[in-house]
Write a structure and sequence with these properties.
Shape of chain B: globular
Shape of chain A: globular
Structural class of chain B: mainly alpha
Number of strands of chain A: 8
Largest interface: A-B, 31 and 32 residues
Strand content of chain A: 15-25%
Oligomer: heterodimer
Number of helices of chain A: 6
Number of helices of chain B: 9
Low-confidence stretches of chain B: none
Number of domains of chain B: 1
Order of helices and strands of chain A: HHEEHEEEEHEEHH
Distance between the termini of chain A: 78 Å
């Protein structure tokens, strides 16, 4: 067959695309359960790490229920939503719903007799989405641990938000001021005053990602305030 | 290659491996793959991981293109090559996510960036389309090693001078809040050069490498 004819070119293209597409579809479907399991265990690992339980991914799956005693879905008005499974709430989809239909997951954990509230976060970074967890002490004000992650921030710059030097800055900061008003914790460009209870150092070269973290903390934590006041 | 009596590692084949290291380096001589040399050389570790990922895609891509070279219609060859790169990159990404989740997280956007790495399309077009499978594999390995050397040299200087670290370890001492709290070089008032972390400095570093190479290698001097 003439390899320069239109027919040959057309057939070659069709065959090539079908072969590649089926191979990829097959791989994606076969690997999906393994990938989903990795993501689920990682979520548990991240939640545990914010309350100071650092375990590897496989252990996290087993230890999760030992620490996390309650998974609550919280409505915007502060009441509990019993109709949905808190763990399976996808924040990306949830934030797109009308405000009155939104329900946000809250993990109530216990470690060494103390109660902790773990709030999941989700927001936008520079390139793609960012997410994380922040654990509050029993006073629902002091941060005991924070864990952030990202889908595709610039390596070495914005991607540093998932490094411990960045995350550990949040420990001990408070989200409410002396009068009990919500102020969140902000990453400041050029460095924060160490005495400031509501500010941490931003990332040089990662300003937009740092601002994304600020916005995410502010927007997500705000939703839990009515619930925290009621309970 | 039917009837080819050439030894697997004949002098000609060895040249395929060694030429890209110096005389025909993909970055400094062919000027391919500059974009990734700028983007991911802030840290040594990411440069190494990226080089390994590129090696996988280029070696297998070269092999596939070389096997199909007599079947690919000339008019759509670029599209076919692109399809092969995209296929391999997605495959790597999926497999890593399932079996090496931590590595896949480290690579994050790089895996996708491999598609845009001009070394890959450059080698498919310039080499694999005209040579047999074994030669194409050697060419793939040689070119990624040449690429990796430059990436690692650039990343070495950028990480060392920019953040005072190598592979994440603080080799120049620890920088505290004040000079008194700092150790190592920082104790004597040394400061990191934050400019090294920005892309323009990668370009300048690559430029200096090209200059050094051309000053030493007479073969590269143009009239």
């Amino acid at each position: 067959m003439d390899r320069n004819s239109n027919l040959y070119t057309f057939i070659f293209a069709v065959v090539m695309v079908i072969v590649v597409a089926s191979a990829l579809a097959f791989t994606a479907t076969t690997l999906k359960p393994l990938q989903a399991e990795n993501v689920r265990k990682e979520k548990m690992q991240n939640i545990l790490s914010t309350i100071g339980v650092n375990v590897d991914r496989d252990e996290a799956g087993n230890l999760f229920t030992d620490y996390v005693k309650q998974e609550v879905a919280v409505n915007a008005d502060g009441t509990e939503n019993t109709e949905v499974d808190a763990f399976s709430i996808d924040l990306m989809k949830e934030t797109k719903k009308p405000a009155e239909e939104q329900a946000f997951p809250l993990y109530i954990a216990e470690k060494e007799g103390k109660k902790y509230y773990v709030v999941p976060l989700w927001g936008a970074g520079l390139w793609k989405e960012i997410w994380g967890y922040v654990a509050l002490e029993e006073d629902k004000n002091t941060i005991i641990g924070a864990s952030f992650d990202h889908a595709g921030e610039t390596p070495g710059l914005g991607a540093e938000i998932n490094q411990s030097w960045y995350e550990d800055q949040y420990i001990g900061k408070t989200i409410l001021d002396e009068n009990g008003n919500f102020v969140s914790v902000t990453a400041v460009k050029g460095g924060a005053d160490p005495k400031d209870l509501h500010a941490v150092d931003g990332i040089s070269g990662g300003t937009i990602t740092s601002e994304g973290v600020n916005k995410m903390l502010d927007e997500r934590l705000k939703n839990y305030l009515p619930y925290f006041q009621n309970n | 290659m039917a009837g080819d009596k050439e030894a697997l590692f004949s002098q000609k084949n060895r040249k395929l491996l060694t030429d890209p290291l110096n005389d025909d380096n993909p970055i400094t001589v062919q000027v391919l793959g500059i974009c990734s040399a700028l983007a991911i050389t802030v840290q040594l570790k990411t440069a190494i991981v990226m080089s390994l990922a590129v090696m996988f895609v280029l070696v297998f891509g070269n092999l596939i293109v070389s096997l199909l070279r007599n079947l690919i219609p000339n008019r759509i060859r670029i599209i076919v090559q692109l399809l092969i790169v995209a296929f391999l990159v997605i495959l790597v990404d999926q497999v890593l996510k399932a079996y090496a989740y931590d590595v896949s997280k480290q690579l994050s956007v790089f895996v996708g960036l491999i598609i845009t790495n001009c070394i890959i399309m450059g080698r498919f077009e310039a080499f694999a389309l005209g040579h047999g499978p074994w030669k194409s594999i050697l060419d793939g390995i040689g070119n990624t090693i040449g690429y990796a050397i430059i990436l690692i040299i650039v990343a070495f200087f950028r990480e060392l001078l920019g953040s005072g670290k190598l592979m994440g370890y603080e080799v120049l001492g620890h920088k505290g809040k004040t000079i008194a709290e700092s150790t190592g070089l920082y104790h004597f008032g040394y400061e990191n050069n934050g400019f090294m972390l920005l892309s323009p400095m990668a370009l300048i570093t690559v430029g200096v490498l090209i200059w050094l190479q051309r000053a030493r290698n007479r073969k590269l001097i143009e009239d």
